[in-house]
Design brief:
Blueprint (H helix, E strand, L loop, with lengths): L2 H10 L2 E4 L2 E5 L7 H4 L7 E8 L5 H14 L5 E5 L4 E5 L6 E3 L18 E6 L2 E7 L5 H19 L26 H4 L28 E8 H11 L3 H19 L2 H6 L2 E9 L13 E9 L7 H15 L2 H16 L1 H4 L3 H15 L6 E9 L9 E7 L8 E8 L2 E8 L5 H12 L5 E4 L5
Parallel strand pairs: 6-7, 10-12, 12-14
Antiparallel strand pairs: 1-2, 2-5, 3-8, 3-13, 4-5, 7-8, 9-15, 9-16, 10-11, 14-15
Length: 446
């Protein structure tokens, strides 16, 4: 192995032991999260499975005990060090909680003893909420699939079996690669940084009361949605991003002049699973992002124009060489000796600034597609559906995530704002395309 490759391999190792016991370093995507996750911006994202029969709590707790033991790198809490935050094993048994109306709230990762994921249950639903510090979409889906499969084995007396690459032997020890920092493992070296992007338009308006988070889900037949995307010559993700951008465009033109002058760029962030380019078995974070954008100084665009623009932007930017530029920018700072030597109390304000300038300030919203969720039989017959909710954000107000299960697409918007116009415009556009949309919402605020 070359010198650079050996250095990458060493820096990818996150598990350590010292006189204080076992601990984990934060991966490259996680190191900024403690500085920017506060109050209602909890960094929690949610993935849930709705079964065809009510959840039996004792069986779910037994399944959680076994699944958590197989994913020990998730059963952790955050600790503050002199130079960096780190993770230490959570010594108490993870417990199943009741599932409240508002997800992804009531969470303080900085409070000592706070587990960085939680399992909740209500009626027929098993829900997992995970801090972005410990995993991304791939890791959270693997955990939930194993939890659901083990729960179904518990209530079936252990006789239920099925083959799936994500279903693990819960009695086997974890593969060390499951915990690696894949950003450092695949660090490309001295690539140029990506160009700076302009500040983006953000939704305004009043916030919901503290502790409230509205999730609006559109349930759409999958086959017609895929057919409509093919009709435009684009992917389903590109079609949904175009509908999102069109809604933002309508809101921008309806906004007061002073808000339009503040920012004339619309930008929707689209996460990219880097495992498609750089193979790894890591269940930690390993995603980067591309942006689909419109410059409204050039005037209003019709929907077919937006679809074509999104298609070409994403196809151009989702490219290994281009993604390496983003990886270089993110990893190089953490490797710099002068940055590593700065005490955390001084690093935190800088990280907040960098997150604002190169993260949330340059996007109007997020749309993440987890893709098709699958389970083998006989597990699949016991699951009615999977759904998902994005992390809350005060700055962008609203974000979107989607996945498909069997013959249906589930598109969910999570919002901290009272206004629902963005969601209404997106779902109205999908209906105008001839798609049937059944809407669900977790609560009605006064």
């Amino acid at each position: 192995m070359d010198v650079e490759g050996e250095l990458n391999r060493k820096k990818a190792v996150l598990g350590f032991r010292d006189e204080g016991g076992d601990w984990y370093a934060l991966d490259n995507a996680a190191i900024i999260m403690p500085a920017v996750s506060r109050g209602v911006d909890t960094s929690l994202f949610r993935l849930s499975a709705t079964l065809r029969a009510p959840v039996r709590l004792a069986a779910l707790q037994a399944a959680l005990d076994r699944t958590a033991a197989r994913f020990p790198y998730f059963v952790v809490e955050l600790r503050r060090g002199f130079f960096w935050h780190h993770l230490v094993p959570h010594r108490r048994r993870p417990r199943v909680e009741a599932d409240p109306t508002s997800p992804c709230q009531g969470f303080d990762m900085g409070r000592r003893g706070t587990l960085l994921f939680r399992v909740r249950a209500r009626d027929r639903t098993i829900a997992c909420e995970y801090s972005h510090i410990i995993t991304d979409g791939t890791g959270r889906l693997r955990f939930l699939k194993n939890l659901v499969a083990e729960y179904l084995r518990q209530i079936d007396g252990g006789a239920m079996t099925g083959s799936d690459p994500d279903l693990l032997d819960l009695d086997a020890p974890p593969d060390p690669e499951e915990t690696e920092d894949a950003y450092n493992r695949h660090y490309p070296g001295r690539y140029p940084f990506p160009p700076a992007e302009p500040f983006a338009f953000h939704l305004g308006g009043p916030l919901l009361p503290k502790g409230s988070y509205r999730v609006t889900t559109g349930v759409i037949p999958l086959a017609p949605a895929l057919a409509k995307a093919r009709e435009f010559g684009v992917s389903l993700t590109e079609l949904l991003v175009a509908a999102y951008l069109e809604a933002l465009q309508n809101l921008w033109f309806a906004a007061p002049e002073r808000e339009r002058r503040r920012a004339s760029t619309l930008s929707v962030e689209v996460p990219v699973n880097m495992r498609a380019f750089c193979p790894t078995r890591s269940n930690r974070n390993f995603s980067l992002f591309v942006h689909a954008s419109l410059d409204l100084r050039l005037g209003r665009r019709e929907f077919p124009e937006i679809v074509a623009k999104v298609h070409h932007q994403l196809r151009h930017d989702i490219d290994l060489q281009g993604m390496k530029r983003h990886m270089t920018r993110n990893v190089r700072g953490g490797r710099a000796l002068f940055i590593r030597a700065i005490p955390l109390v001084l690093k935190a304000p800088v990280m907040k600034y960098l997150y604002a300038r190169f993260g949330m300030s340059i996007i109007s919203g997020v749309l993440s597609n987890l893709g098709a969720v699958t389970l083998p039989e006989p597990y699949a017959s016991s699951v009615e559906r999977f759904t998902i909710a994005p992390p809350p954000s005060r700055l962008t107000r609203t974000g979107a995530v989607c996945l498909s299960w069997k013959d249906r697409l589930f598109l969910s918007f999570g919002s901290l704002g009272r206004e629902r116009e963005l969601e209404r415009l997106v779902f109205t556009r999908l209906q105008a395309l001839g798609l049937d949309v059944a809407l669900e919402c977790n609560f009605e605020e006064s």
